[in-house]
Amino acid sequence: MESSNKYGRKTLKDLREEAQLSKSAVYKYVGVTPKSYDAWEEGNSIPSLVRAVRLAELFGKPITVICEAFGIDVSKVPIDGSLPSIDTGAAPSASEP
Length: 97
Hints:
42% of the residues lie in helices and 0% in strands. By secondary structure, it is mostly helical. The model has no long low-confidence stretch (mean pLDDT 85).
């Protein structure tokens, strides 16, 4: 049974169990201590981007799925390479004649 969190997204534990991996296999592959990995699964800390990418590789999931497991909202991140239209508040640059 999935242990999805209260927001309905998969947890890190769900992803690990789907991949049929032990905690030991994951923390060794990612290169962290058991204590650090446990803190991730318990929701007490999040991995660096480099380690999050390693988790994505190991679990065979897009990095956005890993981010969502840690509660990071990636809903506005383009996944198809298109550039979003984001208002940065900066004035448009003047065109060269």
